[in-house]
């Protein structure tokens, strides 16, 4: 009977060993010391099982660093020196937008790009006498005058009136001056448009004192209108 006992004992021992086998002999500990755990040590030395919070590499190549590449491709961790966008939309550009017309009231001498913001003073047409000539006893006089737009905008449909004053050779002492308006007291000469900063010169002749001749003569640009 003893010849059957040894095989039976061996089978019983093997069955006991198999019952105590938990299957953990090939598992390893993770970075948190948990056998079979999923925690992983990331590049910044942080151990956990959440891949979403793993540290990243910044633009300078430092894991977990805070350097950022700005819009001018400069990599550092100082947000105060990040490049800015100029007025034309260029990152790191140095353009200065403003009014570049020296004739404008808001001219900006530092502006490099005209942004259409220029403002101008309104049109202002001034009439002035520039000369006259006549000979005593003659029956005509010459008048020279100027219409000058000193404003900052075009004067449209410029119209004007002249006033002349004269004395004829009547032979009577103490005669007064005769005044007339040209073209008349109820109408105006029409010139047209005068751009800002431009002037127009005129020379007109007027016949007077028919059969008598001129004794004295003067004139003025009496009225100037525009749109």
Q: If you had to describe this structure to a student in words, what would you say it looks like?
A:
A hairpin with a 5-residue loop joins strand 1 and strand 2. The protein has 1 helix and 13 strands. 10% of the residues are buried. 7% of the residues lie in helices and 34% in strands. The protein has 227 residues and is mainly beta. Among the domains are: 35 residues, no CATH class; 101 residues, Immunoglobulin-like (Sandwich), CATH 2.60.40.
Short overview:
The protein has one helix at residues 5-19, and strands at 40-41, 47-48, 68-69, 75-76, 97-98, 113-114, 125-134, 140-149, 155-168, 178-182, 189-194, 199-207, 214-225.
CATH class of the domain at 125-225: Mainly Beta
Beta-strand content bin: 25-35%
Q: Radius of gyration, rounded?
A: 51 Å
Number of strand segments: 13
If classified by CATH, what would the architecture of the domain at 125-225 be? Sandwich
Describe the sheet with the most strands.
Answer: 4 strands, antiparallel
Mean residue pLDDT: 87
Total helical elements: 1
């Amino acid at each position: 009977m003893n010849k059957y006992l040894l095989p039976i004992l061996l089978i019983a021992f093997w069955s006991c060993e198999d019952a105590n086998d938990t299957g953990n002999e090939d598992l390893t500990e993770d970075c948190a010391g948990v056998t079979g755990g999923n925690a992983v040590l990331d590049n910044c030395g942080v151990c956990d099982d959440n891949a979403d919070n793993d540290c990243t590499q910044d633009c300078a190549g430092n894991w977990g660093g805070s350097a950022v590449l700005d819009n001018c491709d400069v990599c550092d961790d100082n947000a105060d020196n990040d490049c800015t966008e100029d007025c034309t939309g260029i990152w790191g550009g140095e353009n200065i937008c403003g009014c570049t017309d020296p004739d404008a009231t808001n001219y900006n001498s530092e502006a490099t790009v005209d942004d259409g913001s220029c403002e101008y003073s309104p049109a202002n047409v001034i009439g002035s006498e520039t000369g006259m000539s006549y000979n005593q006893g003659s029956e005509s006089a010459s008048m020279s005058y100027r219409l000058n737009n000193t404003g900052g905008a075009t004067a449209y449909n410029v119209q004007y009136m002249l006033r002349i004053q004269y004395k004829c050779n009547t032979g009577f002492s103490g005669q007064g001056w005769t005044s007339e308006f040209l073209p008349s007291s109820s109408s105006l000469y029409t010139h047209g448009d005068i751009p800002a900063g431009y002037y127009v010169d005129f020379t007109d002749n007027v016949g007077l004192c028919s059969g008598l001749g001129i004794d004295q003569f003067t004139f003025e640009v009496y009225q100037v209108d525009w749109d």
